[in-house]
Task: inverse folding
């Protein structure tokens, strides 16, 4: 049986007194998650909005609701959390780039939501079938608003994980690259098949993702080591 790789950081040595050390200060980036949660809660439930701009294009009508896409749609949460935890233990450089990608794209998105609040009216009134997936989606609709949708955070998050996986030296085998790429695409397109987003929301996330990729994964590359 192949042994698992050893973590690059020994978190058993973590103490409050050494959180600012070179070894552990990357963990401060995790503070963005509760901050983002508060910001998202504010724009969703507390920010006063007089009018939401509906997001729609005729292509949306050609995309049917399909409950099978509930599976990749919900895998998104594990997709992001899993990559954050994996890189935090096994590739600190990829962890930093992943977190900065999320910080940049999610923060820009929150600002867009504040100044250009959007909504979508694509959710089906009745489902074509009755099964565990459609019942799950009905419950999800009841707890999640149809506002603040453009650009899609689901798309931004899935691309963040895909780019981090493609950058991570431990995941350079073609099978891993294809797996993360396919899953990232499935999650992105699942947003329109479960009627959580318009196709416009998906396309709107792409230029922001490309900018963040350039900023976090391309422009901020490690300088080559000098040789004698």
Result:
């Amino acid at each position: 049986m192949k042994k698992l790789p050893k973590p690059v950081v020994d978190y058993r040595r973590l103490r409050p007194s050494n959180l600012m050390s070179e070894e552990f200060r990357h963990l401060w980036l995790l503070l963005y998650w509760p901050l983002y949660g508060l910001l998202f809660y504010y724009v969703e439930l507390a920010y006063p909005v007089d009018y939401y701009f509906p997001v729609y294009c005729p292509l949306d009508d050609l995309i049917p609701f399909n409950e099978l896409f509930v599976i990749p749609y919900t895998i998104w949460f594990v997709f992001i959390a899993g990559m954050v935890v994996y890189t935090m233990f096994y590739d600190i450089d990829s962890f930093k780039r992943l977190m900065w990608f999320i910080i940049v794209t999610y923060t820009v998105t929150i600002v867009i939501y504040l100044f250009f609040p959007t909504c979508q009216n694509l959710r089906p009134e009745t489902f074509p079938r009755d099964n565990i997936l459609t019942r799950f989606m009905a419950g999800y609709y009841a707890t999640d608003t149809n506002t603040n949708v453009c650009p899609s955070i689901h798309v931004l998050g899935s691309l963040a994980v895909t780019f981090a996986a493609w950058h991570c030296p431990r995941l350079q085998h073609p099978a891993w690259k294809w797996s993360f790429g396919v899953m990232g695409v499935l999650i992105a397109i699942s947003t329109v098949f479960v009627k959580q987003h318009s196709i416009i929301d998906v396309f709107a996330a792409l230029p922001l993702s490309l900018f963040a990729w350039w900023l976090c994964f391309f422009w901020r590359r490690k300088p080559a080591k000098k040789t004698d």
